[in-house]
Design brief:
336 residues, alpha/beta, Ubiquitin-like (UB roll), Elongation Factor Tu (Ef-tu), domain 3, Rossmann fold, 3 domains, 6-stranded parallel β-sheet, 19 strands
């Protein structure tokens, strides 16, 4: 166990030998900025003033050569070798609403949802508390470093945790996950993520997902449908996919009796062959274009959540900025 002192804070926290600087800080209640948690976004950078760390991923894209020259490190890829003194600008925004914990878990069920998206259900040794829309890190057998996957059920404190994951061609993590047999064990660390359901929001809810971004949007929808404080809110769910075979979510949402009263689902296909009939209620194009057509001038009236591929996320941000939507109404976790 090592002590980590944030310069000027006078509140050192402890870091276990096998933990990262970022996750140890979050477990200790520090508002440590982060997003992806796996080395890609660079939001968890800190400057090392004193001490030594191990770098878990020297080529992590979240760290530039200039950062390295200035002795900056990624919190999610750094392990303390000694006591540390670091320079970090903390923020209450990032303080964990549920203390992240590590638990071993057993694969209970693997269910195919589309040709390349499956739902994985794990039984944890200890309950995992999380809010709708959050994610966890799964350490898979034989894979270097954990993978971040979003929970798909509504927020809870549960021994059973569900994830929906897209199988990435030649993706090391997803190949191992999809190859797991019932009864095999993994380690789950969570929850993480800032795009969780805001129970005090006074606006209708807009959820936009693309690809494997289905999971957190489904979790948010399920959470909103079961929330006592959000029971008067309408829920607009847009899901962008490439082809008909990639569509998912509508049947899962319809399992809630509340969906028929408050839910609105729109599917958008970006690569639909001309001449083929579209499923009822389905549109063609990109999901942000469909959003503009449906709600363009009213976007600032929603509490907005989105998740999907980087290009979709960039297009969403550009659209929301163009419509001057206040950023405190917009919630997403940055992945690459």
């Amino acid at each position: 166990m090592h002590s980590i002192d944030i310069d000027g804070a006078n509140t050192p926290f402890s870091c276990a030998e096998d933990d990262t600087v970022l996750r140890a800080g979050l477990r200790a209640g520090v508002g440590f900025p982060y997003e992806c948690n796996v080395g890609s976004c660079g939001n968890c950078k800190f400057e090392l003033l004193d001490g030594e760390v191990d770098n878990l991923w020297g080529e992590a894209p979240g760290l530039s050569d200039k950062d390295r020259q200035k002795n900056r490190w990624l919190g999610c890829q750094s392990r303390a070798k000694t006591d540390l003194r670091i320079k970090l600008r903390t923020s209450e925004h990032y303080r964990a609403i549920h203390t992240p914990t590590v638990t071993s878990a057993t694969l209970a069920r693997h269910t195919a949802l589309t040709h390349d998206i499956s739902e994985f259900e794990f039984d944890c040794d200890t309950p995992l508390a999380f809010s709708s829309g959050q994610y966890a890190l799964i350490q898979l057998p034989g894979v270097r470093g954990p993978r971040a996957y979003s929970m798909s059920q509504s927020g809870s404190n549960s021994l059973r945790v569900e994830f929906q994951v897209r199988r990435v061609p030649q993706g090391i993590g997803s190949e191992v996950l999809f190859g797991l047999k019932t009864g095999e064990r993994v380690h789950i660390d969570g929850p993480y993520g800032m795009a969780y359901l805001r129970e005090d929001a006074e606006r209708d809810i807009l959820l936009v997902g693309g690809g494997s971004g289905l999971a957190p949007m489904l979790s948010l929808a399920r959470g909103a449908l079961s929330s006592e404080t959000l029971q008067t809110r309408q829920i607009h769910f847009l899901y962008g996919a490439r082809q008909v075979r990639d569509l998912c979510g509508q049947d899962l949402l319809a399992q809630s009796p509340e969906w028929a009263k408050r839910g609105h689902y729109t599917a958008v296909l970006s690569n639909h062959p001309g001449g083929e009939a579209l499923p009822e209620g389905c549109q063609t194009g990109f999901v942000h274009e469909a959003l503009q057509a449906l709600h363009g001038q009213a976007l600032s009236e929603f509490e907005i959540y989105f998740a999907g591929p980087p290009l979709m996320a960039q297009a969403m941000i550009k659209l929301l900025v163009a419509h001057k939507v206040p950023m405190n109404q917009v919630h997403f976790d940055q992945f690459y």
